[in-house]
Each structure stands twice: as C-alpha cells, then as structure tokens.
Design brief:
Number of strands: 6
Order of helices and strands: HHHHHEEEEHEEH
CATH topology of the largest domain: PH-domain like
CATH class of the largest domain: Mainly Beta
CATH architecture of the largest domain: Roll
Radius of gyration: 41 Å
Helix content: 55-70%
Length: about 230
C-alpha cells in the first residue's frame, strides 16, 4: 500500500508542462509579434520617404510647371533687320581700309590705279552679299533646357548653351548700336574667361526680355544662387 502511494505522489513530478502553460506561452509570442509589426511598418515608410527625398535632391526636381515653362521659352527668332546696317557699316570700313592697302601695293608695282576701283567694287559687292546671308542664317531660340543659336555663312555653327552652365547675363550698347536703337545680349558661362556667346541685333526691350527669360530658366536649373 505504501509503495502504491509513493508512486502516485511522484507521478505529477514526472509529467511535462500542461496545456495551460503551453497556451500562455503561445499568447505571449503572438502578442510580441503583433507589438513589433507597427514599428516595422513605420521604419519601412520612413525609409521610403528618405529615399524619395534623396532622389529629389539628386535629380534636382526644381523645374517649372509645364504651363509656366511655356511662358519663358520662345520660337525660333530672327534678329532685328537694322543689324544689317550695323554689319554693313563695319564691312564698308574694312573694305575701304583693305582697298587702300591693295591700291598702294598696285601703284608701287607700277600697275594702273583703276585696278584699285575694281578691287573696291569687288570687295564691296562680296561684303554686301555676306551681310545679307549672315542675317538670313542668324537664329536664336529659348528652349526648355538650353539657349540655342544658329549662325555662320561659310561655316554654319549650331550652339546649345545649357542653363546650368550660365553664370552671368549682360546687355551692351556701343555708339553705333545706340544710334541704330539696338542692343546685344552677352552670355557668360562657367569655365570661360570672357563672353562665350552674344546675340546682337536686338531692340533694347527685347534684349531685356530675353535676359529675364534666360535668367529665370538658369535659376530653375541651378538653384536660387545661380545668378
């Protein structure tokens, strides 16, 4: 009888944890898992926001609205016709000086003086033709990403000046330009000691308007400290 009683007394000690203990452990594990899920979501959302902000800074998403951008861009434009007078006067002075030099050389060589008149007429006609062709091929345009210029008679040049390279814009008017009512827009770019490009043959109001357009686009491309 005593042996049987001892075995019944030791029986509960030999068995493992009961169902009640296992159920409490599972509840605790599920509770911890639920508690961690909001933190995980917040961390993921914060990481996405940081990634988007970094990408925005890297790509410099400072562009104007498409509708606003149209107001600053322009179509292909010609120069003011009065610029032909300016170029013609400059050409005539050059032709006169060259004719005097050639006439002197012809006279020194014993040639007839009439050759000097023929040289003057030939050079003047050639220069006048170059002035007309130069005016016809001169084009400028304010585009979304760059200032575009097309010019040159013998050698046609097409230039794209990205707004991110533009450092300074200026307008200039010499005595001849003031007399003709013209102005020139001068564009300075990064890495150049002088003016990289210039757009002549503009009316003063047009030159100021073009200056403001290009300046605004350069600021949007580079930031508020661009100009």
């Amino acid at each position: 009888m005593s042996d049987g009683g001892d075995e019944r007394a030791r029986a509960p000690e030999a068995t493992g944890p009961g169902p009640e203990t296992e159920t409490k452990s599972a509840v605790v594990r599920r509770s911890k898992s639920v508690d961690r899920s909001p933190d995980t979501r917040e961390t993921a959302e914060f990481g996405e926001r940081v990634s988007r902000a970094t990408a925005a800074i890297r790509d410099r998403e400072r562009r104007l609205d498409p509708e606003k951008l149209v107001e600053y861009t322009t179509d292909r434009r010609d120069l003011d016709p009065k610029v032909r007078v300016r170029w013609g006067i400059t050409m005539s002075v050059g032709v006169a000086v060259l004719t005097v030099v050639l006439t002197g050389l012809i006279s020194a060589a014993g040639g007839p003086a009439v050759l000097g008149v023929l040289v003057l007429a030939m050079l003047f006609g050639l220069g006048a033709g170059l002035v007309v062709l130069r005016y016809r091929v001169w084009i400028y345009q304010v585009r979304e990403d760059s200032l575009y210029l097309e010019r040159g008679v013998l050698v046609n040049r097409r230039t794209h000046v990205p707004y991110v390279r533009i450092q300074h814009l200026d307008t200039s008017r010499g005595p001849l330009e003031r007399w003709l009512g013209l102005s020139t827009l001068v564009v300075y770019t990064a890495g150049s000691r002088g003016a990289d490009i210039s757009i002549p043959g503009l009316e003063p109001a047009e030159a100021r308007d073009l200056q403001q357009r290009v300046k605004r686009l350069a600021i949007e491309a580079e930031g508020d400290d661009a100009l």
